[in-house]
């Protein structure tokens, strides 16, 4: 083959390659046009394709497939940068998701292409309001103004941006802070329907159940989240914190059952300290602690624990009963009667409460009597000899003849001393007094005028009248001859 023939052959091959290349390029271009055709605006009169695009976008938004809607709109804009309606729909979709900066850029681009469009200007204004409201809500949450923060989220942000996940999570945190645990559970339930593996929603929903003391359900939420992400710090903290609380609470109950009451007291206190804000669980811890302290006779401490339980649940009958018992220990008779009456009204068929109320009423009645032991300065276990010695000493001390300057006070004191001795020196009267019986002739403190005594040194006459008070058989305790007379 000569050079001319070779050159001709090579030239033919080159031309065939060029033709083949041009064919391939045209084929690819045709495929691209066919694929993008439904997304391109009707600038060339194909309005049906644009309508189909926006209908598909609308349907995706209805079923909350926001990413698919945005993908379609982005592809349409890439194919035709002058497709104004695509910018508007993209801006609206981004606004729903509170992607504020991206949404604002799309609204402004649309208004460049379609100046003065009122609908777009209105939505842009709503977007800016929502952005400002969300910033304010976050600041208010951080400062502790949960009510105002929730207003911004509910009445502005989620009105203009209903798919805003940041606002939704902030709302759940606000509901938890406001102790609306059922509301928080409901809100996170909606989130988990959209994404059952949403870790933040699992955490917050678990907290809602936790603060309702539905601990088993709370644990299931934490466990599911940890299966998805074993290193999630907040889920780990919540899970192990709850396990520790349940362990410490059970330890307190076990020690009560074993009779280790002092150990149980420390367990109860430790469990409460783990989460002082867990009211639904702590109410039972406070009650358990109060009951143990009552058994230990620590009335003041028991009173504090039962009051803490009643501050959480003012109608907790058992806490009222136990606080009544604690008040009996601290000799707050009227307070004990008030608490036990309230408990009896709540549980009128409970005989145990009625018996406790009767004890409190008896203690109150006894507290209003003269305390003859206190008047003589002796203990309730004093012997007859102790009582006589105390009486002799006080009678001499307060004899009116020895207290001329304060005769009236001395006479009153002497009456009380004589009345105390009359009761406590008589075995039968003393026993009945100790039982709290209401006996009319039990000393001068009941009925006045010294009724029931075989003597009345000061009753009857006016001032200056002379009375004779004779101790038959000598002064109690000896020391004076029989028939010694005091003259008043």
From TrEMBL:
<keyword id="KW-0677">Repeat</keyword>
<keyword id="KW-0256">Endoplasmic reticulum</keyword>
<dbReference type="InterPro" id="IPR036869">
    <property type="entry name" value="J_dom_sf"/>
</dbReference>
<dbReference type="Pfam" id="PF13432">
    <property type="entry name" value="TPR_16"/>
</dbReference>
<dbReference type="InterPro" id="IPR019734">
    <property type="entry name" value="TPR_rpt"/>
</dbReference>
<keyword id="KW-0802">TPR repeat</keyword>
<protein>
    <submittedName>
        <fullName>Uncharacterized protein</fullName>
    </submittedName>
</protein>
<dbReference type="InterPro" id="IPR018253">
    <property type="entry name" value="DnaJ_domain_CS"/>
</dbReference>
<dbReference type="InterPro" id="IPR001623">
    <property type="entry name" value="DnaJ_domain"/>
</dbReference>
<dbReference type="Pfam" id="PF00226">
    <property type="entry name" value="DnaJ"/>
</dbReference>
<dbReference type="InterPro" id="IPR011990">
    <property type="entry name" value="TPR-like_helical_dom_sf"/>
</dbReference>
<keyword id="KW-0732">Signal</keyword>
<dbReference type="GO" id="GO:0005788">
    <property type="term" value="C:endoplasmic reticulum lumen"/>
</dbReference>
């Amino acid at each position: 083959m000569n050079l001319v023939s070779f050159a001709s052959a090579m030239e033919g091959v080159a031309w065939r390659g060029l033709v083949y290349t041009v064919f391939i390029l045209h084929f690819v271009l045709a495929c691209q046009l066919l694929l993008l055709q439904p997304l391109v605006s009707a600038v060339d009169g194909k309005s049906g394709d644009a309508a189909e695009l926006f209908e598909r976008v609308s349907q995706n938004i209805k079923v909350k497939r926001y990413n698919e809607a945005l993908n379609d709109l982005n592809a349409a804009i890439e194919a035709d940068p002058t497709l104004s309606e695509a910018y508007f729909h993209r801006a609206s979709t981004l606004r729903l998701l509170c992607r504020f900066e991206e949404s604002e850029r799309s609204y402004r681009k649309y208004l460049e292409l379609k100046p003065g469009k009122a609908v777009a200007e209105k939505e842009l204004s709503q977007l800016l309001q929502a952005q400002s409201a969300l910033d304010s809500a976050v600041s208010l949450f951080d400062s502790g103004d949960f009510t105002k923060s929730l207003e911004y989220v509910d009445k502005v942000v989620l009105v203009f941006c209903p798919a805003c996940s940041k606002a939704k999570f902030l709302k759940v945190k606000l509901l938890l802070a406001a102790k609306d645990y059922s509301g928080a559970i409901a809100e996170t339930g909606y989130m988990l329907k959209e994404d059952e593996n949403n870790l933040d929603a699992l955490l917050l929903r678990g907290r809602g159940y936790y603060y309702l003391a539905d601990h088993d359900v709370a644990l299931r939420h934490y466990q599911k989240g940890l299966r998805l992400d074993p290193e999630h710090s907040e889920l780990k903290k919540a899970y192990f914190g709850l396990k520790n609380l349940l362990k410490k609470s059970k330890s307190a109950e076990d020690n009560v059952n074993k009779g280790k009451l002092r150990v149980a007291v420390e367990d109860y206190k430790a469990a409460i300290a783990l989460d002082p804000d867990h009211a639904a669980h702590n109410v039972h811890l406070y009650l358990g602690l109060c009951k143990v302290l009552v058994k230990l006779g620590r009335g003041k401490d028991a009173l504090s624990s039962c009051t803490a339980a009643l501050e959480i649940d003012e109608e907790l009958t058992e806490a009222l009963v136990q606080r009544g018992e604690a008040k009996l220990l601290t000799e707050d008779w009227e307070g004990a009667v008030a608490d036990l009456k309230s408990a009896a009204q709540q549980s009128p068929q409970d005989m145990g409460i009625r018996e406790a109320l009767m004890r409190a009423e008896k203690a109150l009645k006894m507290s209003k009597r003269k305390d003859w032991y206190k008047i003589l300065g002796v203990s309730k276990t004093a012997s007859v000899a102790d009582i006589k010695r105390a009486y002799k000493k006080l009678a001499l001390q307060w004899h009116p003849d020895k207290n001329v300057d304060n005769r009236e006070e001395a006479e009153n004191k002497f009456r009380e001393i004589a009345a105390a001795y009359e009761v406590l020196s008589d075995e039968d009267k003393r026993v009945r007094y100790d039982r709290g019986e209401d006996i009319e002739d039990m000393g001068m403190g009941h009925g006045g005028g010294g009724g029931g005594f075989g003597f009345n040194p000061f009753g009857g006459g006016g001032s200056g009248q002379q009375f004779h008070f004779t101790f038959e058989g000598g002064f109690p305790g000896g020391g004076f001859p029989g028939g010694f007379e005091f003259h008043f």
